[in-house]
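My current task is to audit a protein record that another person submitted. Thanks in advance; the entry in question is below:
***
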Amino acid sequence: MQLHFSPSMRSITISSSNGFIDVMKIKVAARHFSYRTLFHTILILAFLLPFVFILTALVTLEGVNKCSSFDCLGRRIGPRLPWRVDDSGRLVRDFYKILNQVNTEKIPDGLKPPDSFSQLVSEMKNNQYDARTFAFMIRGMMEKLEREIRESKFSELMNKHFAASSIPKGIHCLSLRLTDEYSSNAMARKQLPSPELLPLLSDNSYHHFVLSTDNILAAAVVVASAVQSSLNPEKIVFHVITDKKTYAAVENHNGIRNYYHGNHVTGANLSDTTPRIFAAKLLARSPKYISLLNHLRIYLPELFPNLDKLVFLDDDVVIQRDLSPLWELDLEGKVNGAVETCKGEDEWVMSKRFKNYFNFSHPLITKHLDPEECAWAYGMNIFDLRAWRKTDIKETYHSWLKKNLRSNLTMWKLGTLPPALIAFQGHVHPIDPSWHMLGLGYQSKTNIENIKKAAVIHYNGQSKPWLQIGFEHLRQFWSKYVNYSNDFIRNCHILES
C-alpha cells in the first residue's frame, strides 16, 4: 500500500498493488487542513484497509453470491443482530419443508436409491440433483436399509431357531457311545435300581424328583446339582423318564406337522409382525413341544400311584440349594406349587398373563378365560398327588387339546403350558420366586447376583447352556456340574468353554 501527497498538500492518494483497491483520493479543504488531521486520517485508513482487503478476499474465495456493496458484505460477515435475517437458518427451514413434503409423497418410479454414501455423492456431482431429488434419494436409501436390517433380523431368528432345535454333535456322540456300551457291556445292563432299593421308589419318607428327558447330558447335570446341593442327599430318589424322540399320532395331523416343520419365513408377510413376536412364534414351534415326554407330566398321579408328593423338574434346570423344604410347604389344599410369572418387570419371562399365551379373539377363549389372569411357570413344581387325584385336571387338559385341534391350532401358542394353565385353574398355590428363577435361555442381561441366590435356575428359552448359542457368562452355572474328566464326555469332545 502506497501514499502519495500532492505538491499542494490538498490531496492524498492511497493505492494498492494487489488490485483490490486501486486508487483512493482524499481531498482536503485548504482552509481547514491541519497536519494533526492528516496524521489521524492516515492512521485510520492504514488500520481499516487491510481488514477490508481480507474480508473481500474471503467473500471472493468462498464462491458465495457476489457482493457489490459493503452492505452485502456486512450482511454476510458482520455480527448477527436481532433484525438481521440468518441465511443459513432460512436454508435449513426450507430443507425441512422439502423433507416433510417428500416424506408424504410416493418415491418416483424411475428413482433408484444408491447403494452407498460414496455413490450418492458421485451421482449428486454428475447429475446435479436439486434439493427435492436429493431428499427422495436419502429417503430411498433409508427405506432400503431398514428393509435389509429387518430381513437380516428375521433370518437370524430363523437360524437361531434351527440351532436351538438341533442336537449338538457332542451330545449325539454321547448317546451313541452309551448305547454301544449298553449293548456290549453286561455291567451296563445291570438292573437299576438294585432289587434291595426298589422299595424306596414308593417310600414317601424320601424326597422324590421326577425328570422327563431324552438329553443324557442335561439329565446328568440336574441329578448332580441336586445331589451336591442337598443337605441330605441320601434321602433323594430320582425317577428319570426317557425315550427316543417320539412324534407318534400327533405327527399324523397335517396342521401340527406344518406348524412345527414348515418354512416360517418364505411366503410370510414380515411387515405385519415384529422380530420379538416372530421369535416368540418360533419358540412355540420348537419340535420338543410335540414330544410325548413333555406331555407325560399330566399323567404323574397314574405314573406314581403310591407317592403323595413329588417335585417335577425340566432338564434345563440347575439346583443350587437344598430343596427338601418344598416337601414341608403347605399348599393349602392346592395341587401345584409354582412360581407366578406376572409379578416382574422382565417382559420376556416374568410379566406373563393369560393374554400372552391365548388367542382372545377366539370365542371359546374369550368365554372361559380372563386375559389378565396371572400365569405360572413349569419347570420346577411341587405337586401334591393326593390332592391331584381328587380333580379332573387330566380330563380338562385333554378336552382343551381336542378343542384346539378342531380349531386348527388357533386357540393358543402351542406347547404344554397353555393347556396346563387352563387345566390347573384354581389348583395353583404361588410359592416364593426365589425357589425358581427363569429366563437364563432368553436374555444375556440376567442379574448374576440373583442367579447366585436362586434355589433353582432355569435355562428356559432357546439359548441352552449345552448349545453354541448359549450365553457364555451364564453357562458357568451349568457347566460346573459336568464331569469333563469322564471318558465318554472327553471322547465325544464335549469340552468346557
User: Anything to note?
Assistant: Confidence is low (pLDDT under 50) at residues 17-33, 51-78, 246-257. The first strand starts at residue 2 and ends at 5. The two ends are 80 Å apart (CA to CA). The domain at 169-492 is CATH 3.90.550.10 (Spore Coat Polysaccharide Biosynthesis Protein SpsA; Chain A).
